[in-house]
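Q: I'm teaching a short session on how sequence maps to structure, and I want students to see two examples side by side rather than one. Could you give me a first protein with its sequence written out and its structure tokens following it? Keep the formatting plain so it prints cleanly on a handout.
A: Of course. Example one:
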Amino acid sequence: MVSFTVISSVIATVFAAVASASTPIAPSEPAPGTVWTIGQPGTIQWNSAPCNHVLNSVFDWLDFMTGDNINQITLGNVATGLDGTTATTYSWTCPNVDIHSAIYFFMFTSTTNSSDMAWTTRFAITDSTGALTTPPNATQTDGEKIPWGVGHLLSGAASASAPAASGSLSAASAPATNSVLAPTANTNSLSAAPPAASGSAAPSAASPAAASPSVSQKSSASKVLTTAGLGLGAVAAVMMA
């Protein structure tokens, strides 16, 4: 009969492996109320705190986005090949856009699962005058009171071709639209929620949209449970030996 100590050690190893595989990151900058200026560098930041907007720590795509929560539009790729376990910031030169308003955000996509995504909150972009306009739409397509709009790139430098400490992007020739699950009202849930409006609650606590777990998060949770189940199955086999 295998000793209790050995069984406990195996169980601990299984759950440690599961925890390591699902280490989350949380986008934190741009934060609510952030205003960037065209042509000036800005900092995109994330951390490993287990809070809203979670994503596996290894991600491949960082995209510049606009649009509503359901029909998100990719304006361009900011960076690829980033590893959230070795870096927590990315310095990016703000491009020229034609609507100076809080209608822009960034989307992080997992390198191992393209449906595993996380978002920053919406932030504003302005020119040297500092002038801003109100987002064209006051509510989302599902009626939630989260302002949004559709911006466009006017010009920009070439995008970075490899992971680096900083970069900029060029206008996308055919911006992609990404359909995602609409958030539901739940102020206490943890979720990889679509971006919320700027100027709302604290950036890393709970999304102003306060979404319930999205399809991507549920998928990630399922993977963790499945992995844990396989590990415990192995433990059971040892115990029966």
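Q: Perfect. Now a second example for contrast.
A: Example two:
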Amino acid sequence: LFKILGFGDDASLMSAVISGVVNVVATLVSVFTVDKFGRRLLFLEGGSQMFICQVIIGIMIASKFGVTGQGSFTKGEADLLLFFICAYVAAFAWSWGPLGWLVPSEICALEVRPAGQAINVMVNMLFTFMIAQVFLTMLCHLKFGLFFFFAGFVAIMTIFIACLLPETKNVPIEEMNRVWKSHWFWAKYVPDHVVSEAYDSKKAVP
């Protein structure tokens, strides 16, 4: 990506290293803050930051390369672009990156947790592979529009979290059915007997 945007070989390598370091550090931020601030807050903050960065990157590339793909960045503009790319990487690394593995393991009841995690891993790996295969091709065809394309999906993801994902911080797995039952949308899909059975099972544990 950096080479396509006009960065030299050394600059491309250094930019990749910088973004990689940011990724590692930001992931550690998530490790130490997820139980303090909760999953929803990190999801919403990370999604908002990712959306803003995608739009700004798209605008910067559109202003310099347009639809022809011909253009170049000055050093200052390249540094600014790298900053927003790193801001995007950081937002993903402390929100959607690790929480995409954590939250699915928390929201499934014990009875279906293995199947739920298996589906989560399969879908995650499948779409990671697909995006990696088509990203450069899409960039060549959509050019700056690709970043607005992904920004749209980030917006949808963030709205989904805001409206449909309950907070799972400090919620035991045994209590998840009760959490779903108390949610304004998902309550109609959770039978009452499932919640009562989970409650009875918890009471039966010595």
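Q: What should students look for in example two?
A: Point them to this: Helices lie at 9-37, 39-65, 75-93, 96-107, 113-142, 145-164, 176-182, 192-204. Also worth mentioning: The chain has a mean pLDDT of 88.
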